[in-house]
Amino acid sequence: MSESASISTEVATRLRYVRKRYGLSQRELAKRAGVTNGAISLIEQSRVSPSVGSLKKLLECIPMSLAEFFTFDLSEGGSVVSRRDEMPNLGNASIEFYLVGANVKDRNMGILREVYQPLADTGPEMLTHAGHEGGIVVSGQIELTVDGTTWLLDPGDSYYFESRLPHRFRNPSEDQVCEVVSANSPPTF
């Protein structure tokens, strides 16, 4: 394959990826850029290689710079799925916090798989931070205290509160692990 064909294929792959990632149809991108949707189709099929000026014009409609277009990691599409052994544990042996999408840059939310060992808790100090958080108990029980009120949550029970309110979590069981799936925004991890 010649160097120009290789570049054309890379442009085609990247343009298709970016267009879909931003939720644009070929027709919508063409309309924004003032070109025919056939032109977008030909570029994405590697049948036409756009000039730098034409590509820049297309990217301004997304918006994305030429530098961003040629340097983003196409493999980030692989970050859609986080396998159990790929999620880093941001906690410790007592409370494991497995972060979903740890390799995603500029995350707008944090999603965690939390595993509380028997009698584990987040500590005597109440937690406070900006944002909101919510979760659902998957197994075991969790004791949740928010702003002086305490609840015992069973599997299937959920919570949602403003994180600025003092709060803490505790597994009250002496022999059962508790698992929670939680989310917070903005992300605290």
Can you walk me through this structure?
With about 190 residues, the chain is α+β, with helices and mostly antiparallel strands. The chain folds into two domains: about 5-70, lambda repressor-like DNA-binding domains (434 Repressor (Amino-terminal Domain), Orthogonal Bundle); about 80-185, Jelly Rolls (Sandwich), CATH 2.60.120. It has five helices and eight strands, in the order H-H-H-H-H-E-E-E-E-E-E-E-E. It has helices at about 5-20, 25-35, 35-45, 50-60, 65-70, and strands spanning about 95-100, 110-115, 130-140, 140-145, 150-155, 160, 165-170, 180-185. Strands 1-2-8-3-6 form a five-stranded antiparallel β-sheet, with no helix packed on it. Strands 5-4-7 form a three-stranded antiparallel β-sheet, with no helix packed on it. Strand 4 and strand 5 (about 150-155) form a beta hairpin. Helix 2 (about 25-35) packs across helix 3. It is elongated. It starts with a helix and ends with a strand. The model has no long low-confidence stretch (mean pLDDT about 85).
